[in-house]
Structure formats: structure tokens, C-alpha cells
Amino acid sequence: MLKAGGRVVLVDNVAPDDDPATDTFWQMMEYLRDTSHVRAHSVAQWRAMFTETGFNVEVRHRWKKRLEFQPWVERIGTPHFNQAMIKTLLDDASQAVHEWLQIDEHYNFTLHAALFVGIKTA
Asked: 3-state secondary structure string, the chain?
């Protein structure tokens, strides 16, 4: 609970705002890696959730994080079968997905992240 004027800061990976197919691809990759994954929200979705819960929100910073595929799947203990499925998805990915994730020949890719600051209105 925050009183009026209180601040909440959130940092999270974000999905694309304007490409449902790439968003779905990203959600599937995340789920195959970690079956407890629920959803990576877009910046627009985060803004809406902040606003709907009584916050003014600013996106203070957006950035990209380059990840190596193998450590990414190993750190959470992704089963080998799921790792292979993710690689198959990446092999067959659309041009839009390749552009969003910047996939290389070793399956390394780029995540998108954002820092939000919400200020409670009342």
C-alpha cells in the first residue's frame, strides 16, 4: 500500500508493443525455458496496469540486454528437450522475430527491458 505521492519502481523484460506474432513467439520461448513463466508484458500493457491501479507512470529508461543461449537455459535448469524445441523455434523464426531478438548463429539473442516509475495518485 502506498499513500498519495508514494513511488513504486519496476524493472522488467518487455515484449513488443505492436507485433502480436513476435509477442506470442517470445512468450512461447519463455514458457519452454521456464514453465512457471506467465507473461512478459509490453510497455503499453505495463502503462495500462499502472494507470488502472491509480498511478501516474513514467518509462524512465529502456535498454537491450544481450544473452548467450546456453547459460540462459542452464541457469534455470531447462530440460534438454525444451532447449531443442527453443532452438527449432529460433531456426524457423520470422524476419520480425529475428529483428526483435537479434538472433545469431549460436542462438544468442537480445532481450528488451524497461524501468518504470509509478506515482500513486490518491
From this structure: CCCCCCEEEEEEECECCCCHHHHHHHHHHHHHHCCCCCCCCEHHHHHHHHHHCCEEEEEEEEEEEEECHHHHHHCCCCCHHHHHHHHHHHHCCCHHHHHHHCCCCCCCEEEEEEEEEEEECC
Q: What is the pLDDT of residue 122?
A: 83
CATH for 7-120?
3.40.50.150
pTM, to two decimals: 0.88
Give the pLDDT of residue 89. Answer: 97
Q: What is the mean pLDDT of the chain?
A: 96
Burial pattern 88-119, b for ≥16 Cβ within 10 A else e, equals eebeebeeebeebbebeeebbbebbebebbbb
Below-70 pLDDT ranges, the chain: none
Domain ranges of the chain: 7-120
